[in-house]
């Protein structure tokens, strides 16, 4: 019986080892720069060779408000194979903040509204942390550059919004997110760090480790032998 158990343990170890080797990143250490997410998937499907960096955030989170401009600056330095994707934390079936985020995306107003929402909560006090959808819409309508009509229509479109909220909620759960802000690279690597700068440095290290492999240079064709000169 002991021999059978030992054989089973050896088989299990042999099966796990290749999987652990596949997730390992050269020059990095799991548990230091990242935590591997079993069966993880990106928030958005990416073309081959493209790496997603997803930030799960909340407008009511003071850490996210401080981190947001740092992340924006960092994202501009990403290599061509990586892109940043924002994912609002969803703390209820119809979370008003996440609802406004996705509606603003649809209305093509997120670029101007995103930083203003952080400021309204953490700097000017224009919005309370428990703001309702009605309060958020009223605030958004006062922001220059927001398409008010398109935003109102998008906020009323439950058929489009509720699946997006569900998808964001499931992504955060699947990615083992236990606080905001959190960075997930390629859906499989939850970034660790003891400071904002360290978090960004570790995220960039993982992004670089996942860069597409450059094809090996072609070997030069062997030189053709010159024909021997005719003898006189």
General description of the model:
This protein is of the alpha+beta class and 232 residues long. The protein has helices at 2-23, 62-75, 96-106, 110-122, 133-141, 148-155, 158-174, 196-209, and strands spanning 34-36, 51-57, 82-88, 182-185, 189-191. A 5-stranded mixed beta sheet has the order 1-5-4-2-3. A hairpin with a 3-residue loop joins strand 4 and strand 5 (189-191). Helix 2 (62-75) packs antiparallel against helix 4. The protein is elongated and about 85 Å long. The N and C termini lie far apart (87 Å).
Short structural summary:
This protein is α+β, with helices and mostly antiparallel strands and 232 residues long.
Task: Please provide the count of β strands.
Answer: 5
Major beta sheet, specifics? 5 strands, mixed
Q: Terminal Cα separation, in Å?
A: 87 Å
Order of helices and strands: HEEHEHHHHHEEH
Proportion of helical residues: 40-55%
Q: List unreliable stretches of 5+ residues.
A: 1-22
Mean pLDDT: 88
Please state the CA-atom Rg, rounded to the nearest Å.
Answer: 25 Å
Number of helices: 8
Structural class: alpha+beta
User: What sort of overall outline do the alpha carbons produce when their principal axes are compared?
Assistant: elongated
Strand order of the largest sheet: 1-5-4-2-3
- Fraction of residues in β-strands: 5-15%
